[in-house]
Amino acid sequence: MPLTAHIPSHRKPRRSASKVALRAGVAGGVLSTIGVAGAAGPANAEPVTATIEMPTITADLANTVAVSAEATQQVAHAYDLQAQQDEAAAKAAKAAKKDKAEAERKAEAEAKRKAEEAAKKKAAQEAAEKAAAEERASRSSERTTLSASASVGSSDSSSSSSTATGSAAAVVAFARAQVGDAYVSGGTGPNSWDCSGLTQAAFRTIGVDLPRVSQSQSTAGTQVGLDNLQPGDILYWGGAGSAYHVGIYVGGGNFVGAQNSGTGVVERPLSYDMPTGAVRVL
């Protein structure tokens, strides 16, 4: 037995013939496929000598893309906001135009109303002035007639003491001419009177200047009894020197006086409001 019989061999174990044949067949099939593919390709095809490199997405590129997208969104938002503002401005302009037209319409209507009111007031004032002028003319004519008749004397068939003559007739005529005038406290004419203002004005027509108030007029002449009255005597209500009302006896049992705001200047019988006493100035 040789000495190397127990030393293991360093050679690789031989492959079996079946495995070698199998591998050879596979290799042959691959080479055949490559040959067929080469025969089927274009005759002038050039071998690929360059490669195409795809861009590499880096962090900077990603940031740029993100910024661009955000900018696009901001622009779109700005356009949307501008559109909303334009629409709001258009609505506001339309509303302002409508309000202006309405304001102008109201102003025109108000101006028309004021013009109509002014025209009515003017017409009413002109009518009042015309009526007042006619009334003054009528009173003036009446006073002239009464004064003329008083100057030649007048008589009252109801009493022999009712005939007014001379200055007394002028006082009576003036008093009667004021019948229908208004009563106003403190009034001294020509169209409104209080009681003492009327008597003072009546006696002033004949040049007699009476005191202004009733208390003083009730003692301005000689005291006479109510059963001995003559036209032109001053009647008073209340005490002599403290009278609160006066009137003028016009004859026939009547007197003229500015009574109150309800009646104005009236001619009434003594029984209407019996006086307290009387004084004779003439």
Write the layout of secondary structure elements.
Blueprint: H1 17-40, H2 59-151, H3 166-177, E1 182-183, E2 192-193, H4 195-204, H5 214-217, E3 222-224, E4 234-237, E5 245-251, E6 254-260, E7 264-269, E8 277-280
Parallel strand pairs: 1-2
Antiparallel strand pairs: 3-8, 4-5, 4-8, 5-6, 6-7
Which features does this protein show?
alpha+beta, 5 helices, 8 strands, 282 residues, endopeptidase fold (from Nostoc punctiforme), 51% helix, six-stranded antiparallel beta sheet, two-stranded parallel sheet
Describe this entry's structure for a reader.
The chain is of the alpha+beta class. It has a domain at 153-280: endopeptidase fold (from Nostoc punctiforme) (Alpha-Beta Complex). It contains five helices and eight strands. The radius of gyration is 67 Å and the shape is rod-shaped. It starts with 16 loop residues before the first helix and ends with a strand. Mean pLDDT is 78; it is low at 30-41 and 143-161.
